[in-house]
From TrEMBL:
<dbReference type="InterPro" id="IPR050272">
    <property type="entry name" value="Isochorismatase-like_hydrls"/>
</dbReference>
<dbReference type="Pfam" id="PF00857">
    <property type="entry name" value="Isochorismatase"/>
</dbReference>
<feature type="domain" description="Isochorismatase-like">
    <location>
        <begin position="9"/>
        <end position="169"/>
    </location>
</feature>
<dbReference type="InterPro" id="IPR000868">
    <property type="entry name" value="Isochorismatase-like_dom"/>
</dbReference>
<protein>
    <submittedName>
        <fullName>Nicotinamidase-related amidase</fullName>
    </submittedName>
</protein>
<comment type="similarity">
    <text>Belongs to the isochorismatase family.</text>
</comment>
<keyword id="KW-0378">Hydrolase</keyword>
<dbReference type="InterPro" id="IPR016291">
    <property type="entry name" value="Isochorismatase"/>
</dbReference>
<dbReference type="InterPro" id="IPR036380">
    <property type="entry name" value="Isochorismatase-like_sf"/>
</dbReference>
<dbReference type="GO" id="GO:0008908">
    <property type="term" value="F:isochorismatase activity"/>
</dbReference>
Amino acid sequence: MKDSNPKYALLIIDIINPFDFEHGAVLAGHTARIVQPLSRLKQQCKEKNIPVIYINDHYNLWQANLETIYQKCLNDQNEMILSHLKPGPDDYFLIKPKHSAFYGTALNTLLYHLGVKSLILTGIAGNICVLFSANDAYMREYTLFIPSDCLASVAEEDNRYALRMMENVLQANVQESKIILEQYL
């Protein structure tokens, strides 16, 4: 990516999702509520030359081909979400085999190559994949920013708990995306 801002990177975790599992419809509904702030955050990061990295489940395809995964996931339930948050040609796209964005992926190497020291973690599910990714990022000594309006989980209480864990245990800066953008980026 040309002229990237090496200090920060925006991670968008598991947003390309078919929601075809138990409680998937509930998570899709909660995810729909974060589309606007996440889309706005992504656009503003791009304007500031902050790299955008999508890291996603591969849904048993085991391919890092964005279009293949996107087409496998696309359905009536997620069409609005995906139409607003589909990766662009200058976004990075990685697949992950498990919950954490770091486990078994090239993410840490990519971040090192880009000179990134601070991560903005967004996506779904906040209490699983985003939380586990934040934990692994913390252990790798990244500074963490968690826009609270860009995270969704099946249960609202689980999402709030994950945000508290990231703030209190992982020392993440947890605030709305607008405040993070205005004060830190």
